[in-house]
């Protein structure tokens, strides 16, 4: 059937035919014009309940735009890809997650320039690089957060796919010009990946300011204790020690780290609530270094000893992300 005959009959061309035409336009540098065509064609297929074809077009478009560094266009098509998954009520499975990960794999990874000579041109380049990095992180985060919501609704994990949380954490850490280790830690914990979190924390220690390393470790351990329990918190500490030893680095030493070590030992004992409270009192100055720690310790007291506090565990975890500007 010719294209003209198909048009008169209101039919849709095979998706590969559409993809090839749009790819040629993108290769010619017509990024914005082609963007609108990707939206139009995918909407037509979706309206005809041809969700598989719409997904093919959007995956191709998002991946190609991202390969050309068109992050805004690519991220927008990537979010539309997830929208088709939702509208088509498509179940979360390995095949679809693999397609999501393939789109994610095309988001650029670009290191910020390290300028030794600071002049007006260098400052301008760094400022522009920071703006572009923020756009990359925002675009990728929007896509992955949408995918996480879809996976929660149509998959087996009520809070969303752990694999997608881990991808989100890794991208934010590698690309964000303003690292928020609290948010990154939460995403790794939701990604059920303490080993990767340990590796990332050790990497963070190489670039953080003095006094931030023990805060990052304590925060991650307390988050794990409040959500996952003792096993993964101990595993995280063990992995941290292994990673540091492999780099011939010492474990950070501070009263806060001392508190964390004693806390892990205390929680492993039976009937240890009095000792738990004694530790909180003794190390109060260290705990007060971050306001979040008191809330997390309340959540830990509730989880391990059944002592009720005003905020439930899920509410605290959700509030952490809301405070940091993220819903997932």
From TrEMBL:
Highest taxon in the source lineage: Eukaryota
Pfam families per record: GET4
InterPro entries in the record: GET4 (IPR007317), TPR-like_helical_dom_sf (IPR011990)
GO process terms (BP): protein insertion into ER membrane
Gene Ontology CC, one term: cytosol
Family as reported in the entry's similarity comment: Belongs to the GET4 family.
Full protein name: Golgi to ER traffic protein 4
Lineage: Eukaryota, Viridiplantae, Streptophyta, Embryophyta, Tracheophyta
């Amino acid at each position: 059937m010719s294209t003209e005959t198909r048009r008169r009959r209101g039919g849709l061309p095979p998706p590969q035919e559409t993809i090839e035409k749009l790819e040629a336009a993108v290769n010619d540098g017509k990024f914005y014009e082609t963007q609108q065509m990707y939206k139009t064609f995918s909407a037509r297929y979706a309206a005809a309940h041809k969700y598989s074809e719409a997904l093919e077009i959007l995956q191709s478009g998002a991946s190609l735009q991202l390969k050309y560094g068109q992050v805004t266009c690519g991220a927008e098509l990537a979010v539309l890809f997830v929208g088709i998954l939702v509208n088509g009520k498509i179940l979360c499975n390995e095949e679809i997650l693999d397609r999501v990960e393939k789109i994610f794999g095309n988001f650029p990874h670009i290191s910020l320039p390290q300028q030794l000579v600071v002049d007006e041109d260098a400052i301008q380049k760094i400022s522009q690089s920071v703006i572009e990095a923020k756009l990359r992180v925002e675009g990728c985060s929007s896509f992955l957060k949408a995918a996480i919501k879809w996976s929660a609704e149509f998959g087996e994990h009520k809070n969303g796919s752990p694999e997608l949380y881990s991808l989100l954490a890794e991208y934010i850490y590698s690309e964000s010009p303003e690292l928020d280790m609290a948010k990154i830690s939460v995403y790794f914990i939701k990604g059920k990946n303490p080993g990767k979190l340990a590796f990332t924390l050790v990497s963070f220690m190489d670039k953080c300011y003095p006094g931030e390393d023990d805060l990052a470790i304590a925060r991650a351990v307390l988050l794990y204790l409040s959500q996952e329990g003792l096993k993964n918190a101990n595993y995280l500490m063990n992995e941290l020690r292994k990673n540091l030893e492999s780099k011939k680095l010492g474990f950070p030493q501070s009263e806060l780290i001392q508190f964390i070590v004693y806390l892990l030992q205390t929680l492993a004992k039976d009937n240890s609530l009095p000792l738990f409270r004694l530790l909180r009192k003794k190390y109060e100055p260290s705990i007060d270094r971050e306001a979040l720690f008191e809330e997390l310790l309340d959540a830990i007291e509730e989880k391990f000893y059944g002592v009720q506090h005003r905020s439930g565990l899920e509410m605290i975890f959700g509030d952490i992300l809301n405070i940091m500007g993220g819903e997932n």
